Amino acid sequence: MNVTRWFAGAGRRGAALAAVTLALGLGTGGAATAGLAAAERDATTTALTARTATVRDALAATFQRYADTLHDLSAAATTTEPLSPLVAGLTGDRLPGAHRVVVSDAGGRILAQHSLDGSTPPPRATLDPPLGLARTLEIARTGGRVVAGPPHVLPADLDLPPAQRGAAFDVVAPVRGATFRGWVVVAVRAPVLLRESLRGAGVTGVTTVLTASSADGVAHEVARWSEPGATPGDRQGTAELAFAGRSWQVAVRPSTALIGPALDAAAPLAMLGATVLSLTLAAAVLAAGAGRNRAAARSRRDAATRRAAQERAAAAEQALRERETELAGFTAAAGEHLQTPLQSVAGFADLLLEDAGPQLDDVSRGFLERIGRRTRGMLTLVDGLITYSSAAGAAPRPQAVDATTLTLGVVADRLDGLEGRRPGIEVGDLPPVLADADLLGEVLGHLIDNAARFVRPGTAARISVDAREHGPGWWRIEVADRGIGVPEDHRDRIFAPFHRAPSAEGFPGTGLGLALCRRIVTLHGGEIGVDPHPGGGSIFWFTIPASAVAPDPGTELLAPDPA
Known about the structure:
The longest helix has about 80 residues, at about 5-75. The chain is of the alpha+beta class. A five-stranded antiparallel sheet has the order 2-1-5-4-3, with helices on both faces. A five-stranded mixed sheet has the order 11-13-14-16-15. The protein has ten helices and 16 strands. Among the domains are: about 5-55 and about 260-330; about 330-390; about 400-545, Histidine kinase-like ATPase, C-terminal domain (Heat Shock Protein 90, 2-Layer Sandwich). A hairpin with a 5-residue loop joins strand 15 (about 530) and strand 16.
């Protein structure tokens, strides 16, 4: 093939046209490849987030069982009922990783004790705590709450080789009636807790490391687990849990593929195809330029070649659109498949509680109620995941929006759905902004919901919504509250999916609301953050473009009295 002759025969115009064709083809291929690479990254991130969430949920369920058991034992210790049968009935299935449970009085005299791991240590008459446990007992007594002690090695494991000694920690709950009466102490092997929690939840394909943060903020690794022969990948997902006064972090690395091989190879194959196609088109242009003076039959054949190449380009573009549609529908399909069985579990639990509840004892009814609560909580999480994922591909429809009217509507909807003591909500004179009204309503709804929910027990929420200018062409809308506040080191992290500050422990929520707010605000080109509120509480804010025109007149909204 004589390329020089092709260029000479095509002339300057033909060579320039071929160069432009090649540049456009490679540019289009590069854009398509970048899109596929982004889709691959999004799919990988989504899959890793899902695996991390399963690990977090498995540990959260175990921690909740520990908290429920400690609460039950503490309550039983304040009665005259014998404790030994209740303690002896505990098993390692309910408390994975538990080595020994001890209930003592305020003087350290042991009232009941039981080993859950099958060991038979000699019974003890008094606690005789070492220094670390003694400090934990004192913190639990003075604080009146469940406390986890620092990592240490169990006395029962000291005879093992150093490589086989896993970290352990003590979980302590105070026993209080009218006065302080003693403690409930559970010694826990952290590696066994992690392993059995993940196995019990059916978690596979991950290598997991569990760390616990001390009071000074230093993280200590307490356990790690992976399936035999597993090789961890390079990507890592993290999640954080709050339990027993400590912050627990899990680092999750996949040990199996996160996405299928077809999506993994899509980007390089697209670039290869674009390169080949671009070179083919450029060659066709050169050939056409060189053959302009040849016979009409040759010209028609060249035209047919170009049409065929264009058809191949159109087919490649259609395949790319189908790939993008498949990726966008993945999250919705997964959510729908999860919703149906979860709704069935919740429905059957409610039906069983309604039909057989009067014949069940309190413990059995409690189990059914917990099943219903946990299932409804999981449904809420699935709904949040679907909403969060769909927001990534949402195309905002910006228009002039009366922010005052929109906010009053959001407030009215929230107040209509509340029971009991209502929050006090003040809505200032908000400006017209340029935004998608539905998406902006989602952001305001989540921020107002959080402000109304995260308040100290026994107090009514006080919320104000105001706005101020934020540079030329922008407004900053603020939702201020007098709630529990956000610790300084968590003010950036709470906008990540599934992250919840330790101060939010005990409050309902999925950890996706603020992440969804950030995604919507980013789609509008704005920013979102939180500042401390002078005098207590938080000020959540976001920036939104100002509207140069007045909103279209709509139906007048009469806001209800927020008092």
